[in-house]
Amino acid sequence: MNFCVALGGNPNAGKTTLFNALTGSRQHVGNYPGVTVDRKEGRYVQNGHEMRIVDLPGTYSLTAYSVEEVVARDFLINECPRVTVNIVDASSLERNLYLTIQFLELGIPTCVALNMIDVARGRGITIDDKKLSRLLGVPVIPIMARSGYGKKDLMAAVETVAQVPRPQPLRVSYGRDLETAIQEMEKVIAGGNFLTDLYPLRWIAIKYLENDAQILEKGREKDAQIADRLETITRKVGAHIEETLETYPEAMIADHRYGFISSMLKQGVVKERHDENRLFLSDRIDKVLVNRFAGPIIMLLLLMGLYQFVFTYSEVPVAWCEGLFAWVSDLVSNRLPDGLLKSLVVSGVIDGVGGVLGFVPMILFMFFGIAVLEDSGYLARVAFMLDRVFQIFGLHGSSVMAYIVSGGIAGGCAVPGVMATRTLRSPKERIATLLTAPFMNCGAKLPVFALLIAAFFPHSRAGMMFVLTLISWGGALLAAKLLRMTVVKGASTPFVMELPPYRLPTLRGLMIHTWERTWQYVKKAGTVILGISVLLWAAMTFPRLPPSQIEAYDTLRGGIISTATPQVIEELETATKAKLLSDAATELKAAVLAADARRAGAALSHSLAGRIGIQVETISRWAGFDWRTNIALLGGFAAKEVIVSTLGTAYSLGSVDTEAAESLSARLVVEPGWRALTAWSLMIFTMFYAPCFVTVVCIARESSWKWGLFSMVFNTSLAFFLAVMVYQVGTALGY
Ligand code: GDP
Ligand code: MG
After folding, report:
1. Of the chain's two ends, which shows fewer C-beta atoms within 10 Å, N or C?
2. Residue 123, Cβ neighbours under 10 Å: how many?
3. pLDDT at 602
4. Local structure of residue 149 (DSSP, 8 states)
5. 54, 146, 147, 151: residue to mutate for ligand 1 pocket, most atoms within 8 A of CB
6. Dist. CA 71–CA 34, nearest whole Å
7. How far is the CA of 96 from the centre of ligand 2 (A)?
8. Does any ligand 1 atom lie closer than 6 A to the CB of residue 40?
9. What are the angstrom distances between the C-alpha of 165 and each of 85, 160, 361, 510, 630?
10. What is the residue with the minimal CA distance to atom 17 of ligand 1?
């Protein structure tokens, strides 16, 4: 076999020395076309393979900032060497690997020659080449180019690499904002087959973000329209990043590449006699924050602190919001005549959507806290620390980010979480992550928890949220382990998490990020949730009671009133809320209300949703759910916030005491059949049952419909099992 081998690396890494050691006198010096950069070529023969060896110009990067970079890149693309030997100076590994990452991102078959190990050793640096090789996914061979040590091993590795198929390009994750832009750009690029004959999809997108002059120019020549769209996306995300993080895409990309390297080195690749003064600030902070012992404790304390902050400061504004909606509900129900319209507006719209919107202040505080953790770079460290734990459960370090985005810190969303699993290269780990990430406590489950916590555990809100978070992580990990031992068996793959330097978040950036996400929540409540809420109201209202029954209830009510004296009726009609009623009047009022409640209850159970809920009750009773809760849970499949809005509508339709329109949580507390254990069971079920509809579609799109359906069946079965366990064991223990 004849093939071409390129030698690439930073200037002074030892390319020419290695080149000479390999080719001896059989060299040929020329120029790269059009530029005055030396091009040296030679031959190396091994096991009957003849290799054409080319010494590339030394570069630190593969952008298009210098002639050398363009020459090296063009050679790699146009002449497509079978193998590229990346010569790395072991004594300054971090800086050298920056180029390595870019070779790998370009998807070229690479073999790393770890050169100058004598110099490294002299400085007290030892490098675990096996580990580095595993993390990079390419052979890493220690050599000393000057003495020729390791040359044979290196060339044997080159031969092996030459015989395997080209690797998949490496994916470094560039943070939420850039990743969103990259995804959007990839669609545009793939749609137009734009330069994809030359470069990997993702790489083109990244080069646009880096403002790579050469690619921009090639793009415009190739297809001005697509180039325009890509440049627009680039400008938009650039402006956004400038505004929120006060940096620009190129810098962010470099930060994340270095973050990737830094994380690899922190996983024990390098053992170094440390000179503390040489450490950068980020490294010094990391000494504490990702410390093996202190790190996890600090992480849990921060999480608890965040919840404490959120619940403490949002309590008052949430109460205001609830008060506001109660007031509006009161106002409208006093103005509108009794009937369908009033029922729709009060029970369907205000009590439904209001219940969801009432939690906006809490959501806002939560998003603010998350923005601080994310913008400062701390979230990446959380993923880094949890990687070891995740491996035990058959997951991958990248799964951590997917979990966090999905609501690992309460308040995320499973849709971007599911998309974040794209960074996982092993399909099995990916499926396991896809299926379990929706167990996290997304922003839609948050109001459900907040409602039940406010009703039944008002004195330990943050503590409850903290416990729920631990339950969701524990449950997700155990479920993942179960899946990895059964339906998606297979070995786990090594992982590198980007650890970009810490940065002080700007207030402006935090505000923008918080507002963007809060607005999403509000918009969803005003559109999707409103629509579903109205639909469910209809399902809970129709078919209405048959006239004969209505008449029977009217007669009953009339009968009760007719037993009262005219004075008492008069007293009730003129009474204002504040005035104390006589005993007789109070008794009459209670009797009338009870009759009305019985009628409303009968109407609700006669409705379509009521009938379904009652049917399901025969099994759901094991978990402590009554038929109203069943309706809410069915609706929750559309979107989990709907659980709150449906309970709001159901208890609003069932109750007639509009004078005392109180918050839903207050209603639940006094409702017979509801107690703390019911709340626990419902929270566990809500946490684990089928992902919402949008997430299922997303899972299906990321894998297949088989897995989409599987997630619904598996998750719901698991959730029901857990809820029944909680309820039955709790009941047996007397709770
Ligand atoms: P290039 O810029 O990548 O072509 O690097 P060179 O091949 O010109 O090497 C740069 C310097 O590093 C030269 O002085 C080499 O002698 C020296 N060098 C190369 N390999 C080794 C090695 O393994 N150990 C040591 N100590 N020096 C080396
Ligand atoms: Mg040289």
Report:
1. N
2. 12
3. 87
4. B
5. 146
6. 10
7. 15
8. no
9. 16, 10, 54, 45, 53
10. 14
Joined together, the tokens standing for residue 28 give 């040929």
Ligand 1 geometric centre to CA of 155 (Å):
18
Domains in the chain: boundaries: 2-162, 176-272, 294-485, 524-732
Question: Which residue has the least CA distance to atom 6 on ligand 1?
Answer: 14
> Is the Cβ atom of 20 under 6 angstroms away from ligand 1?
no
Ligand 1 center–CA 27 separation, angstroms: 18
Cα–Cα distance measured from residue 130 to residue 647, given in angstroms and rounded to the nearest whole number: 57
- Give the C-alpha separation, 121 to 119, whole Å: 5
Q: Which atom of ligand 1 is nearest to the CA of 19?
A: 7
630 φ, ψ to 5°? -60, -45
CA torsion 450-452-455-460 (nearest 10°) is: -60
Give the fold, CATH level 3, of 2-162.
Answer: Rossmann fold (3.40.50)
Taking a C-beta distance cutoff of 8 angstroms, is the pair 358, 323 a contact?
A: no
Share in percent of the chain as helix, strand, coil (round to 5): 70, 5, 25
User: In this structure, which ligand is nearest to the CA of 8?
Assistant: 1
Count of beta carbons in the 10 Å neighbourhood of residue 286: 21
Beta bridge mates, 144: 149
Nearest atom in ligand 1 to the alpha carbon of residue 144 is: 23
Q: Give the number of other Cβ atoms within 10 Å of residue 187's Cβ.
A: 12
Residue 257: DSSP 8-state:
H
- Per the listing, tokens 């090594």 go with 494
As a whole number of angstroms, the distance between CA 97 and CA 104 comes to 10
Q: Which amino acid is at 674?
A: W
Considering the domain delimited by 176-272, tell me its CATH architecture: Orthogonal Bundle (1.10)
Averaged over successive runs of 10 residues, the pLDDT of the chain (735 residues) comes to 93 90 77 72 92 92 85 91 96 92 95 94 90 94 94 95 92 91 95 93 95 93 95 96 90 92 88 62 86 92 91 88 87 88 88 84 88 89 88 88 89 84 82 95 93 93 95 96 93 78 88 88 86 89 90 89 83 67 80 81 89 94 94 89 86 59 77 91 97 89 92 96 97 92
> 3-class SS at 412?
strand
Reading the block at residue 602, the tokens are 């009968």
Angle between helix axes 249-264 and 176-191 (nearest 10 degrees) is 110
List the beta strands (DSSP E) in 431-489. none
In whole angstroms, give the CA distance from residue 577 to residue 659. 8
Residues 573 and 679 sit within 8 Å (Cβ to Cβ): no
- Measure Cα distances from 209 to 24, 90, 553 in Å: 42, 30, 70
Instruction: Identify the three-state secondary structure at position 381.
Output: helix
Q: How far is the CA of 12 from the centre of ligand 2 (A)?
A: 7
Q: Is residue 13 in contact with ligand 1, taking CB distance under 6 Å?
A: yes
Which residues hold their Cβ within 5 A of ligand 2, which is an ion?
A: 16
Nearest partner of 635 among 715, 571, 573, 689, judged by Cα: 689
* C-beta 12 within 6 A of ligand 1: yes
> Which residue's CA is the nearest one to ligand 1's atom 23?
144
State whether the beta carbon of 119 lies less than 6 angstroms from ligand 1: yes
CA distances from 350 to 108, 324, 366, 446 (A): 59, 11, 24, 19
